[in-house]
């Protein structure tokens, strides 16, 4: 029983990290209808910036995390300005956006590799002792990753559903042309969406780096977030979160009770089974209903 | 701005979609306080004209001026200046509530408290919307959606309201209500209206002046009454054979 609860907590925290990534994908997908593969590189970038902040600039953890968020937002918004916006303005097909995103991703990952080298690094945080509650040991980092991730998602929810800018983003995700007839500035919406994406990938990168390791290819894990958002239902934020939690818990249970070798096998098998019975994902709704 | 300067002035407008010419040398003007109708068949370029006026579609050559100033290049700037379009097919944000749809219409406004009072004015105009305030836009009937589309366009407090096919797909009784409202907006609130319609008889009845658009060019123009009794208009657009 103790083991199960420990696994569950660990699963929830990894699910929370997946949620950040899945929501990032879902947000871009719901407004711009393309998969932002560059997200992968942004996540690694975020982790490395925080890593550098602590190891080279001797910053405390929170300051390094803040630095990482700011720089990743700049990278994400810069990518929108230089790589996506020119294509959108010329009404390029969606596929071009995706290829452009892949290009940005390759460039980002390889530049990181060039500068830092491809080795795995331990994220330099103090060895946090787990806390014990009734004999169950719970990692402090798991609690922190879960807590902060959910905090970020809650803030995002408030932003999207309680502010004017949020309304603009939601309206744009439904019908971008009509949104511009309302006077919603498409370019401003894009800036906000990609800034949010930057925050999400940076926070996810830092926590994923702490939980596992920091290395240039660490962003490959975003494929899991992709699976999670498809399992949940593509383009919907709550669905992305539900899918991520299910996947996170499933993975840790498989690692704990079967074998961590088969973890990814189960993830993909799960995706196939879900899609066989729910082609639109578990919470997939009509296509007009996004976010 | 002098008295004689039209509110909206379009001169020799040419618009292309790729290599296809959608509007060719179109000139028209709208004076303050007028209802102007543009009638024409499918594909005549009516919607393209509307889209050019709100800067959603860029034009190849010609000039559009609004209140004596050249039209802004970005839709959100045009809307801030006081032009709005209730688009063809209504294009309600169907997952959003009636209230959120209306709030989206007020997006360019910063006077928060005033926005609520504009919403009240719109509820006076369309009491049905108030009953449905928390309902999703997509669940409304066609007529209610058209009311919402017009209400949403009014939320920005436009000087010039453009309506693209407000009668499309509506029952005759609802169409009459819609047109009564359009006249009321014009007479009671002094709103200037540019109306694009396939339902030519109604559009010509309520307008001061009208233009007939045919395959991208202005074919005829005149007062609504003149055009209503014009033989060519009767034959081509009113379905009356002589």
What does this structure look like?
The complex is a heterodimer of chains A (291) and B (242). Chain A has helices at 2-32, 39-55, 61-89, 94-116, 140-162, 164-174, 176-181, 186-211, 222-232, 237-257, 263-277, and strands spanning 131-133, 136-138. Chain A contains 11 helices and 2 strands. In chain A, strands 1-2 form a two-stranded antiparallel ribbon. The relative contact order of chain A is 0.20. In chain A, helix 6 crosses helix 8 (186-211). In chain A, 73% of the residues lie in helices and 2% in strands. Chain B is an alpha/beta fold and 242 residues long. Chain B has a single domain (32-55, 73-210, 225-237), classed as P-loop containing nucleotide triphosphate hydrolases (Rossmann fold). In chain B, helix 3 runs parallel beside helix 6. Chain B contains 10 helices and 10 strands. The N and C termini of chain B lie far apart (45 Å). Chain B has helices at residues 46-53, 75-81, 98-105, 112-125, 127-131, 142-154, 172-189, 200-206, 224-228, 231-237, and strands at residues 8-17, 20-30, 35-39, 61-66, 69-70, 83-86, 160-164, 192-197, 209-214, 217-223. The interface between A and B is medium-sized, with 19 and 24 residues.
